[in-house]
Amino acid sequence: MKLDLLRVGQSARGTFGVLRYGQVPFALTLEEPWLDNAVGVSCIPPGLYRCERVRSPKFGNTFEVTQVEGRSHILFHKGNTLDDTQGCILVGEEFSGTFDQPMLVSSQRGFSEFLALLDGQAEFDLEIHA
How far, in Å, CA of 103 to CA of 36, rounded? Predict the structure, then answer.
């Protein structure tokens, strides 16, 4: 199985994207801005990655993005603002907030749809497009 993350906007306020399965978009994402792939404060570079199902002590059942040079523990999880990411990929249903403080909302619903799509999958490929 393969998912695509299409990054549709990027600024110091975050990296905004759309998750797509085939040609069907099903969720939105929020990541840190690009800061040269720095651990915990940057989104990861565009490319093809393997994601593996893990059980996180903090986030429970989720997927970890692997094969990111110099990085580990990059998870998909619920969250609303950059304060929630720590270099991970937040999943939700809507963008909201203000221009100065954008946020992702309906994260529980978006993350649940993400997990439902991947029900029974131990891993998947993720291609991130700039």
Answer: 22
Q: Residues with Cβ < 8 Å from 91, sequence gap 6 or more?
A: 19, 27, 28, 29, 76, 77, 78, 104, 107, 110, 111, 114
Contacts of 11 (CB under 8 A, 6+ apart): 33
Per-10-residue mean pLDDT of the chain, 130 residues long, equals: 96 94 95 95 97 95 96 96 94 88 90 96 97
Planar angle of CA 4, 25, 58, nearest 5 degrees: 70
The neighbouring-strand residues paired with 79 are none
